[in-house]
Amino acid sequence: MTKPKPKKQKQIKKPVKKLVTSSFKQKKQAAKKHEGPKKEKDLNKAIQQLLQEGTERGFITQEEILDLIPRPEHHLREVDALYDKLMKAGVDIFESTAAEIAKEDEQAATELEKELEELA
């Protein structure tokens, strides 16, 4: 007796290229959302404005720089030039300011007061 030949199963092939392309497009779109100013002219204007504010106040914060350039690794030349200009202008760069720290302390105190009222 001979065994019946097994039936060949149809292989379903997914187009790999489309999967890779769509994944790449999604990553690219997600990255664009966090890049900051889209055009170099807009970025240069914003940098000049930040430099002017820093010169007037005598300092800027890291947060202000990151608000302007959220993904600094994509704009290394601009970030380097900004730090160079800030140093030459005598503008200090702080992690945070006393006002930001005071605001955080005030929020913490308010939250603590609410918790104490709930317990009473």
Describe this structure in words.
It is built from five helices and two strands; from the N terminus they run H-H-E-H-H-E-H. With 120 residues, it is mostly helical. It has a two-stranded parallel ribbon. The N and C termini lie far apart (89 Å). About 4% of the residues have low confidence.
In short:
With 120 residues, the protein is mainly alpha-helical. Helices cover 65% and strands 5% of the residues. Mean pLDDT is 75; it is low at 17-21.
Residue share in β-strands: 5-15%
Number of strands: 2
What is the overall pLDDT average?
75
Could you say which structural class the secondary elements and strand pairing correspond to? mainly alpha
Q: What is the straight-line distance between the termini?
A: 89 Å
Estimate percent helicity. Answer: 55-70%
Spans where pLDDT lies below 50 across 5 or more residues: 17-21
**Tertiary shape:** flat
Please, how many helices? 5
Largest beta sheet: what is the strand line-up? Answer: 1-2
The value of Rg in angstroms is 27 Å
Question: N-to-C SSE series?
Answer: HHEHHEH
Main sheet properties = 2 strands, parallel
Key features?
mainly alpha; 65% helix; two-stranded parallel sheet; flat; single chain; 120 residues
Write the layout of secondary structure elements.
Layout: H1 16-33, H2 40-57, E1 59-61, H3 62-68, H4 76-88, E2 92-94, H5 98-119
Parallel strand pairs: 1-2
Helix pairs in contact: 2-4
